[in-house]
Amino acid sequence: MEALLTPSRAQLEDKAPCNIGVSPVGSAGNQAGRPFDYRSGQALSYDIDRQGKLLNVPLLDIASYAEPERVRKMFGSIARRYDLANHVLSCGADFYWRKRAADIVAGWRPSSVMDLATGTGDLALTMQRRMPNVEILGADFSEEMLAIAKHKGLRRVMTADAMKLPLADGSFDCVTIAFGLRNLPDWKGALGEMRRVIKPGGHLLILEFSLPRLPMLRAGYRFYLHRCLPIVGSFLTKQKSAYNYLGDSIEQFPSGDAMLRLMESTGFANAVAEPLTAGIVTIYTGQRV
Ligand SMILES: C[S@@+](CC[C@H](N)C(=O)[O-])C[C@H]1O[C@@H](n2cnc3c(N)ncnc32)[C@H](O)[C@@H]1O
Questions:
Q1: Which CATH architecture has domain 68-212+246-288?
Q2: Structure confidence by residue, pLDDT tens digits, 272-287
Q3: Which residue of 16, 21, 40, 48 has the lowest C-beta tally within 10 Å?
Q4: Phi and psi torsions of 215, nearest 5°
Protein backbone atom coordinates (compact mmCIF):
# COMPACT_ATOMS: atom_id res chain seq x y z
CA MET A 1 0.00 0.00 0.00
CA GLU A 2 1.03 3.54 0.02
CA ALA A 3 4.50 2.82 -0.84
CA LEU A 4 2.93 4.72 0.62
CA LEU A 5 5.85 5.77 1.23
CA THR A 6 6.36 8.16 3.75
CA PRO A 7 9.91 8.52 4.94
CA SER A 8 10.92 5.86 7.38
CA ARG A 9 11.63 6.85 10.93
CA ALA A 10 15.15 5.55 10.48
CA GLN A 11 15.69 7.55 7.32
CA LEU A 12 14.61 10.76 8.94
CA GLU A 13 16.04 10.22 12.35
CA ASP A 14 19.54 9.72 11.13
CA LYS A 15 19.38 12.91 9.10
CA ALA A 16 17.39 15.01 11.50
CA PRO A 17 17.65 14.09 15.09
CA CYS A 18 14.57 15.49 16.69
CA ASN A 19 12.75 15.13 19.92
CA ILE A 20 11.37 11.67 19.59
CA GLY A 21 9.07 10.25 22.16
CA VAL A 22 5.55 9.15 22.19
CA SER A 23 3.83 10.57 25.20
CA PRO A 24 1.11 8.08 25.78
CA VAL A 25 -1.15 9.61 28.31
CA GLY A 26 -4.82 9.01 28.75
CA SER A 27 -6.85 5.92 29.19
CA ALA A 28 -5.89 2.55 27.81
CA GLY A 29 -7.44 1.16 24.69
CA ASN A 30 -8.04 2.81 21.40
CA GLN A 31 -11.18 4.71 20.69
CA ALA A 32 -12.19 5.00 17.08
CA GLY A 33 -10.80 8.17 15.64
CA ARG A 34 -8.39 8.76 18.47
CA PRO A 35 -4.62 8.68 17.95
CA PHE A 36 -3.18 5.56 19.46
CA ASP A 37 0.24 4.30 20.46
CA TYR A 38 0.23 0.64 19.53
CA ARG A 39 3.32 -0.08 21.66
CA SER A 40 1.87 1.10 24.93
CA GLY A 41 -1.72 0.24 24.09
CA GLN A 42 -2.76 3.74 25.09
CA ALA A 43 -4.36 6.63 23.35
CA LEU A 44 -1.91 9.36 22.49
CA SER A 45 -2.19 12.51 24.48
CA TYR A 46 -3.30 14.85 21.78
CA ASP A 47 -6.85 15.39 20.74
CA ILE A 48 -8.76 17.72 18.49
CA ASP A 49 -11.16 20.18 20.01
CA ARG A 50 -14.50 21.23 18.54
CA GLN A 51 -12.80 23.97 16.55
CA GLY A 52 -10.42 21.42 15.05
CA LYS A 53 -7.45 22.71 17.02
CA LEU A 54 -4.84 20.05 17.73
CA LEU A 55 -4.37 19.84 21.47
CA ASN A 56 -1.42 18.50 23.46
CA VAL A 57 0.48 17.31 20.41
CA PRO A 58 3.06 14.77 21.60
CA LEU A 59 6.73 15.08 20.85
CA LEU A 60 6.43 12.33 18.30
CA ASP A 61 4.26 14.00 15.77
CA ILE A 62 3.99 13.24 12.08
CA ALA A 63 4.73 16.83 11.25
CA SER A 64 8.11 16.67 12.95
CA TYR A 65 9.10 13.98 10.45
CA ALA A 66 7.47 15.51 7.45
CA GLU A 67 10.16 18.01 6.61
CA PRO A 68 9.12 18.85 3.04
CA GLU A 69 12.48 18.62 1.27
CA ARG A 70 13.17 15.18 2.74
CA VAL A 71 9.68 13.97 1.90
CA ARG A 72 10.06 15.22 -1.68
CA LYS A 73 13.43 13.49 -2.15
CA MET A 74 12.17 10.29 -0.62
CA PHE A 75 9.17 10.10 -2.94
CA GLY A 76 11.41 10.92 -5.88
CA SER A 77 13.68 8.03 -4.97
CA ILE A 78 10.89 5.44 -4.86
CA ALA A 79 8.78 6.80 -7.74
CA ARG A 80 9.56 3.98 -10.18
CA ARG A 81 8.57 1.21 -7.76
CA TYR A 82 5.73 3.06 -6.09
CA ASP A 83 2.81 1.63 -8.09
CA LEU A 84 3.93 -1.98 -7.84
CA ALA A 85 4.40 -1.68 -4.08
CA ASN A 86 0.95 -0.13 -3.70
CA HIS A 87 -0.82 -2.86 -5.64
CA VAL A 88 1.04 -5.72 -3.96
CA LEU A 89 0.76 -4.39 -0.41
CA SER A 90 -2.93 -3.61 -0.72
CA CYS A 91 -3.57 -6.94 -2.51
CA GLY A 92 -5.11 -4.92 -5.33
CA ALA A 93 -7.70 -3.23 -3.08
CA ASP A 94 -6.29 0.19 -4.02
CA PHE A 95 -7.95 -0.10 -7.45
CA TYR A 96 -11.33 -0.40 -5.75
CA TRP A 97 -10.63 2.48 -3.32
CA ARG A 98 -9.77 4.82 -6.18
CA LYS A 99 -12.73 3.67 -8.26
CA ARG A 100 -15.09 4.38 -5.36
CA ALA A 101 -13.51 7.83 -4.90
CA ALA A 102 -13.89 8.57 -8.64
CA ASP A 103 -17.55 7.46 -8.54
CA ILE A 104 -18.27 9.84 -5.66
CA VAL A 105 -16.59 12.74 -7.45
CA ALA A 106 -18.46 11.96 -10.69
CA GLY A 107 -21.73 12.18 -8.74
CA TRP A 108 -20.95 15.82 -7.96
CA ARG A 109 -20.74 16.57 -11.71
CA PRO A 110 -17.72 18.90 -11.47
CA SER A 111 -16.20 20.74 -14.44
CA SER A 112 -12.75 20.98 -12.89
CA VAL A 113 -10.94 18.78 -10.37
CA MET A 114 -7.49 18.97 -8.83
CA ASP A 115 -5.97 15.80 -7.41
CA LEU A 116 -3.47 17.06 -4.87
CA ALA A 117 -0.39 15.00 -3.90
CA THR A 118 -1.30 13.04 -7.01
CA GLY A 119 1.98 11.09 -7.02
CA THR A 120 2.02 8.73 -10.00
CA GLY A 121 -1.51 9.88 -10.79
CA ASP A 122 -3.57 6.76 -10.13
CA LEU A 123 -6.59 8.57 -8.67
CA ALA A 124 -6.36 11.39 -11.23
CA LEU A 125 -6.20 8.85 -14.07
CA THR A 126 -9.14 6.89 -12.66
CA MET A 127 -11.13 10.16 -12.61
CA GLN A 128 -9.90 11.12 -16.09
CA ARG A 129 -11.21 7.81 -17.46
CA ARG A 130 -14.47 8.09 -15.50
CA MET A 131 -15.09 11.74 -16.53
CA PRO A 132 -13.32 12.22 -19.89
CA ASN A 133 -14.72 15.71 -20.45
CA VAL A 134 -13.75 17.11 -17.08
CA GLU A 135 -10.52 19.08 -16.57
CA ILE A 136 -8.44 16.97 -14.19
CA LEU A 137 -5.20 18.45 -12.88
CA GLY A 138 -2.67 16.36 -10.95
CA ALA A 139 -0.48 18.41 -8.59
CA ASP A 140 2.51 17.21 -6.60
CA PHE A 141 5.87 18.56 -5.50
CA SER A 142 7.82 15.53 -6.73
CA GLU A 143 8.87 15.93 -10.37
CA GLU A 144 9.77 12.24 -10.51
CA MET A 145 6.29 11.14 -9.45
CA LEU A 146 4.66 13.60 -11.87
CA ALA A 147 6.82 12.37 -14.77
CA ILE A 148 5.37 8.89 -14.24
CA ALA A 149 1.83 10.27 -13.98
CA LYS A 150 2.34 12.03 -17.30
CA HIS A 151 3.85 8.96 -18.91
CA LYS A 152 0.79 6.97 -17.78
CA GLY A 153 -1.46 9.41 -19.65
CA LEU A 154 -2.46 12.12 -17.18
CA ARG A 155 -3.13 15.12 -19.41
CA ARG A 156 -2.49 17.98 -16.97
CA VAL A 157 0.10 18.01 -14.21
CA MET A 158 1.55 20.80 -12.13
CA THR A 159 4.51 20.93 -9.78
CA ALA A 160 3.27 22.56 -6.60
CA ASP A 161 3.64 22.51 -2.85
CA ALA A 162 0.32 21.59 -1.28
CA MET A 163 0.95 24.04 1.56
CA LYS A 164 1.23 26.98 -0.81
CA LEU A 165 -0.59 26.38 -4.05
CA PRO A 166 0.21 28.77 -6.91
CA LEU A 167 -3.48 29.00 -7.76
CA ALA A 168 -6.19 31.62 -7.49
CA ASP A 169 -8.97 31.32 -4.92
CA GLY A 170 -11.91 29.22 -6.07
CA SER A 171 -10.09 27.60 -9.00
CA PHE A 172 -11.77 24.17 -8.84
CA ASP A 173 -15.16 22.58 -8.32
CA CYS A 174 -13.51 19.78 -6.45
CA VAL A 175 -10.18 18.87 -4.81
CA THR A 176 -9.18 15.29 -4.05
CA ILE A 177 -6.21 14.00 -2.05
CA ALA A 178 -5.39 10.30 -1.68
CA PHE A 179 -2.87 9.14 0.90
CA GLY A 180 -1.37 12.61 0.83
CA LEU A 181 -2.77 14.65 3.71
CA ARG A 182 -1.10 12.43 6.32
CA ASN A 183 2.31 13.32 4.83
CA LEU A 184 1.85 17.06 4.95
CA PRO A 185 3.49 19.10 7.71
CA ASP A 186 0.33 20.87 8.87
CA TRP A 187 -2.97 19.10 8.33
CA LYS A 188 -5.17 22.03 9.27
CA GLY A 189 -3.09 24.46 7.20
CA ALA A 190 -3.25 22.08 4.23
CA LEU A 191 -7.03 21.74 4.52
CA GLY A 192 -7.28 25.54 4.64
CA GLU A 193 -5.24 25.81 1.45
CA MET A 194 -7.45 23.21 -0.26
CA ARG A 195 -10.53 25.12 0.85
CA ARG A 196 -9.09 28.33 -0.59
CA VAL A 197 -8.79 26.88 -4.10
CA ILE A 198 -12.23 25.21 -4.06
CA LYS A 199 -15.18 27.28 -5.28
CA PRO A 200 -17.83 28.08 -2.66
CA GLY A 201 -20.20 25.10 -2.64
CA GLY A 202 -17.52 22.88 -4.22
CA HIS A 203 -16.33 19.58 -2.77
CA LEU A 204 -13.35 18.02 -1.04
CA LEU A 205 -12.60 14.28 -1.03
CA ILE A 206 -9.90 12.76 1.15
CA LEU A 207 -8.91 9.10 0.80
CA GLU A 208 -6.73 8.06 3.69
CA PHE A 209 -5.71 5.10 5.85
CA SER A 210 -7.60 4.40 9.04
CA LEU A 211 -7.90 1.50 11.46
CA PRO A 212 -10.63 -1.14 11.42
CA ARG A 213 -13.21 -0.64 14.18
CA LEU A 214 -13.63 -4.30 15.03
CA PRO A 215 -11.06 -5.17 17.73
CA MET A 216 -10.08 -8.53 16.20
CA LEU A 217 -9.59 -7.04 12.78
CA ARG A 218 -7.77 -4.05 14.22
CA ALA A 219 -5.32 -6.29 16.03
CA GLY A 220 -4.65 -8.32 12.89
CA TYR A 221 -4.25 -5.22 10.80
CA ARG A 222 -1.83 -3.71 13.32
CA PHE A 223 0.28 -6.82 13.15
CA TYR A 224 0.36 -6.51 9.36
CA LEU A 225 1.14 -2.77 9.52
CA HIS A 226 3.93 -2.92 12.04
CA ARG A 227 5.45 -6.33 11.38
CA CYS A 228 4.79 -7.50 7.81
CA LEU A 229 4.45 -4.33 5.77
CA PRO A 230 7.87 -2.84 6.63
CA ILE A 231 9.59 -6.02 5.45
CA VAL A 232 7.63 -6.48 2.22
CA GLY A 233 7.60 -2.74 1.47
CA SER A 234 11.35 -2.43 1.87
CA PHE A 235 11.89 -5.44 -0.36
CA LEU A 236 9.64 -4.08 -3.11
CA THR A 237 10.99 -0.55 -3.09
CA LYS A 238 14.60 -1.47 -2.34
CA GLN A 239 14.51 1.26 0.31
CA LYS A 240 15.68 -0.23 3.56
CA SER A 241 13.00 0.16 6.22
CA ALA A 242 11.06 2.51 3.97
CA TYR A 243 7.81 1.40 5.53
CA ASN A 244 8.67 1.53 9.20
CA TYR A 245 7.09 4.92 9.51
CA LEU A 246 3.86 4.08 7.77
CA GLY A 247 2.24 2.23 10.65
CA ASP A 248 3.06 4.97 13.14
CA SER A 249 1.77 7.66 10.83
CA ILE A 250 -1.52 5.79 10.37
CA GLU A 251 -1.89 5.30 14.14
CA GLN A 252 -1.44 8.99 14.77
CA PHE A 253 -3.44 10.44 11.93
CA PRO A 254 -6.92 11.68 12.94
CA SER A 255 -9.59 9.38 11.60
CA GLY A 256 -13.36 9.01 11.80
CA ASP A 257 -15.01 11.70 13.92
CA ALA A 258 -11.71 13.45 14.63
CA MET A 259 -11.12 13.99 10.92
CA LEU A 260 -14.71 15.16 10.40
CA ARG A 261 -14.25 17.73 13.18
CA LEU A 262 -11.00 18.88 11.63
CA MET A 263 -12.71 19.32 8.26
CA GLU A 264 -15.66 21.17 9.74
CA SER A 265 -13.39 23.50 11.68
CA THR A 266 -11.55 24.32 8.43
CA GLY A 267 -14.68 25.46 6.66
CA PHE A 268 -16.23 22.29 5.22
CA ALA A 269 -19.87 21.46 5.83
CA ASN A 270 -21.73 18.15 5.47
CA ALA A 271 -18.57 16.21 6.34
CA VAL A 272 -19.10 12.47 5.98
CA ALA A 273 -16.82 9.45 6.50
CA GLU A 274 -17.21 6.27 4.46
CA PRO A 275 -14.99 3.43 5.70
CA LEU A 276 -13.88 0.93 3.03
CA THR A 277 -12.41 -2.57 3.26
CA ALA A 278 -13.37 -3.07 6.90
CA GLY A 279 -12.12 0.41 7.75
CA ILE A 280 -8.48 0.13 6.70
CA VAL A 281 -9.10 3.18 4.55
CA THR A 282 -11.78 5.87 4.78
CA ILE A 283 -13.14 8.31 2.25
CA TYR A 284 -14.01 11.68 3.80
CA THR A 285 -16.09 14.18 1.88
CA GLY A 286 -17.18 17.70 2.63
CA GLN A 287 -18.51 20.79 0.95
CA ARG A 288 -16.85 24.18 1.05
CA VAL A 289 -18.93 26.65 2.99
C1 LIG B 1 1.78 8.44 -0.55
S2 LIG B 1 1.88 9.38 -1.98
C3 LIG B 1 0.25 9.35 -2.61
C4 LIG B 1 0.23 9.42 -4.10
C5 LIG B 1 -1.14 9.21 -4.75
N6 LIG B 1 -2.08 10.23 -4.35
C7 LIG B 1 -1.69 7.84 -4.50
O8 LIG B 1 -2.85 7.71 -4.16
O9 LIG B 1 -0.95 6.86 -4.68
C10 LIG B 1 2.05 10.98 -1.31
C11 LIG B 1 2.39 12.02 -2.35
O12 LIG B 1 2.34 13.29 -1.71
C13 LIG B 1 3.32 14.11 -2.28
N14 LIG B 1 3.59 15.20 -1.34
C15 LIG B 1 4.05 15.10 -0.07
N16 LIG B 1 4.16 16.33 0.46
C17 LIG B 1 3.76 17.21 -0.49
C18 LIG B 1 3.65 18.61 -0.55
N19 LIG B 1 3.99 19.39 0.50
N20 LIG B 1 3.19 19.19 -1.67
C21 LIG B 1 2.86 18.44 -2.75
N22 LIG B 1 2.95 17.09 -2.77
C23 LIG B 1 3.40 16.48 -1.65
C24 LIG B 1 4.50 13.17 -2.50
O25 LIG B 1 5.41 13.68 -3.44
C26 LIG B 1 3.77 11.91 -2.97
O27 LIG B 1 3.70 11.86 -4.35
A1: 3-Layer(aba) Sandwich (3.40)
A2: 999 999 999 999 999 9
A3: 21
A4: -55, -40
